[in-house]
Amino acid sequence: MSERDLRNREFVGRGLHFPLRVNAQGGLALSRGASEIEESIRIILETAPGERVMRPEFGCRVWELLFDPRNAATEAAAIEYVAGALKLWEPRIDVVSVNMINDPNYDDSVMLVEIQYRIKRTHDERSIVFPFYIMDEPVE
User: For a tag on the chain, would you pick the N or C end, based on fewer CB atoms within 10 A?
Assistant: First the structure.
């Protein structure tokens, strides 16, 4: 492995697999490289600000939209919140685009957000589709 490849892997890093699991040797499993970044993105998007006691600002504000109607304003806010959270909390990537996907297999209570990003160190472009569930109709 070249020196540059080693530096790139160090920058991208490794960390505990999320969700936690045990490896074949009985220790905690680790994630490396691009999969570690994807797990980090999921953690950011699945965390609502205020959830973490020692880091109350951490997370994505998209959860504020949980009871909003599914319309263009809600979708625009979701795109803004997702892009902002990733730019703030995941410094190893450049967010290329964040878009809504309309999939006829899902009803209006699911917003599918497609995130295209580039890993800064390796220039590897990737995408992830993340589902956000909203309560489009009032709960009785």
Answer: C
| DSSP state string for 59-83 | S-GGGGGTTS-SSHHHHHHHHHHHH
Single-letter amino acid, residue 29: A
CA angle 31, 35, 38 (to 5 degrees): 120
In degrees and rounded to multiples of 5, residue 7 shows phi and psi of -60, -40
CB burial of residue 26 (10 Å; 0-12, 13-18, 19+): exposed
Alpha carbons 88 and 138: distance in angstroms, whole number: 33
- As a CATH number, domain 3-133 is 3.10.450.40
Domain ranges, ordered by start, for the chain: 3-133
Q: Going residue by residue through the chain (140 aa), what tens digit of pLDDT does each one get? A: 555 544 444 445 555 545 555 667 666 655 556 778 888 999 999 999 999 999 999 999 999 998 888 899 999 999 999 999 999 999 999 999 999 998 888 777 889 999 999 999 889 999 999 998 887 555 55
Strands 14-16 vs 30-32: parallel, antiparallel or unpaired: antiparallel
